[in-house]
Amino acid sequence: ARGEDEGFLGIVPSEQTTTVPFTVDYFVDASQMGPNSYRWNEETKTLTIDIPDVKIAKPNIDEAAGQTEQEGVYISRRASLDLARQISERAAARSKQTAAKPEYLNKARENARAVVARMAEGPLAAAGLDDLPVAVSFPWEAKEVSDSERWDESRRIEDVLNGT
């Protein structure tokens, strides 16, 4: 991240560049799940769990481990504080942007699938059903529709009365 300060009347500009390591956690908000999130397929003997998409948590930025370079003849206390603030904001924005890259989101989704499946396998194993497959599904993925979940395809009452 990089910060810039014009200095006094633009005469004494200063600049600071800091490289900081960061980590970002991804999570699945299980509070969004309910009884309709679980489907049992009798034919394939598979439990399918529908989960919400992964969310990106606030980045953990290790500013103490950062490397900083400063340029400028004189950096006042005010300028130093302003540069530090700019860098903190820009480092947070850059880490969020990096965390949202498709390759990282896809990896987080695959990890979420594995974790949710493992969490479901524990109670199933305790019930003696440890050989049942567990599938994890995200909102945009196609869902199986059982006969009990089909939409009403009958004619409207108006159409019946009108003979159409």
Give a structural overview.
This protein is of the alpha+beta class. It has 3 helices and 10 strands. The protein has helices at 77-99, 102-126, 157-162, and strands at 2-5, 14-19, 22-23, 26-27, 38-41, 46-50, 55-56, 60-61, 67-71, 134-137. The protein has a 3-stranded antiparallel beta sheet with strand order 1-2-9, with helices on one face. A hairpin with a 4-residue loop joins strand 5 (38-41) and strand 6. The radius of gyration is 27 Å and the shape is elongated. The protein starts with a strand and ends with a helix. 12% of the residues are buried. The mean pLDDT is 85.
Structure, briefly:
The chain is an alpha+beta fold and 164 residues long. The protein contains three helices and ten strands; from the N terminus they run βββββββββααβα.
Low-confidence stretches: none
Radius of gyration (Å):
27 Å
DSSP summary: helix tally: 3
Major beta sheet, strand line-up: 1-2-9
Question: Largest sheet at a glance?
Answer: 3 strands, antiparallel
Order of helices and strands: EEEEEEEEEHHEH
Strand content: 15-25%
Percentage of residues assigned to helices: 25-40%
Taking the alpha carbons of the first and last residues, their distance comes to 68 Å
**Mean model confidence by pLDDT:** 85
Structure class = alpha+beta
Instruction: Choose one word for the global shape.
Output: elongated
- How many strands in all? 10
State the main characteristics:
alpha+beta, 22% strand, three-stranded mixed beta sheet, single chain, 164 residues, three-stranded antiparallel beta sheet
